[in-house]
Amino acid sequence: xxxxxxxxxxxxxxxxxxxxxxxxxxxxxxxxxxxxxxxxxxxxxxxxxxxxxxxxxxxxxxxxxxxxxxxxxxxxxxxxxxxxxxxxxxxxxxxxxxxxxxxxxxxxxxxxxx
Amino acid sequence: xxxxxxxxxxxxxxxxxxxxxxxxxxxxxxxxxxxxxxxxxxxxxxxxxxxxxxxxxxxxxxxxxxxxxxxxxxxxxxxxxxxxxxxxxxxxxxxxxxxxxxxxxxxxxxxxx
Lengths: 114, 113
Hints:
Chain A is an all-beta fold. Chain A is about 0% helix and about 50% strand.
């Protein structure tokens, strides 16, 4: 497969455990956030999103938490599976900028140990 | 299959050359976005087109240009290529006004030798 990044933070998790991936965002004006999953050789895939008027949002096996005070975002994956192994990116958008361009974080590589 | 088609998947070219990357958005999507993903810079927004018009510009070099055609497909032109331009180039499309439809293609890997 193709390497997305050689110097990414790596999180190794035992299969079945919960994973927490963190992201610090930079723009205090950002009001929309998305988590993406990128598998080797593929483009980023939408996982879950959250708007700045929320603190928490849950999806299927995933939860996103937003702390605007410290500009921090986290992605929690419950009962992590081998198929969750990938690079995870947070992305932010400032709707006042007038477009839907996204600013991405550096990414975290999640490795699931069977 | 995300519905966003990028061609070619791989491209190897020499420094100083010019290449064109192509993107066909999902059916019905009016917006196309180009991103560059390199090892040291991560995913960076380059440019957005909406229904044929440039909508937003990011960190796009002057050597790079893009356009969106009446059939909504888009092309990213990279000229006077340098070794540092080697990267994955992604296209994304959206219906505009709906982030749930913001979908990425599988990318074009450009290698400049």
